[in-house]
Amino acid sequence: MNEAAASAHRPLASVDPPPAVPSLSQGLRDKFARGLTYDEGAWIFTEHVGQWVGAPASPSAAIAKMGWQDLSGYEWNVNAFHLEDYAPIRVENLDGQPQISRED
Questions:
Q1: Model pTM greater than 0.70?
Q2: Where is this region: Disordered (predicted)?
Q3: What is the pLDDT of residues 22-52, one digit of tens each?
Q4: 37 and 28 Cβ atoms separated by less than 8 Å
């Protein structure tokens, strides 16, 4: 092996410190701490179980009734979860358009 090939196998030196690992917001940690329920392959936040008025008896029955293609439609409807409600980011309005910084 020549010197060029040998140097290619060496790990790259880190020139910048690694970015800080973001942590979950307290609200999101609390939501997960209240638990998840698994039913027919679907993951539902436990606090949302039983909150869908008139819900079919099972995920498969809900999928059939609502015409969803898969479990994601069921999970989306039952969980009504929006990560942006828990993400610690700043959104600024620039010229009437919401903007999120690259750092966020």
A1: no
A2: 1-26
A3: 678 888 889 999 999 999 999 999 998 888 8
A4: no
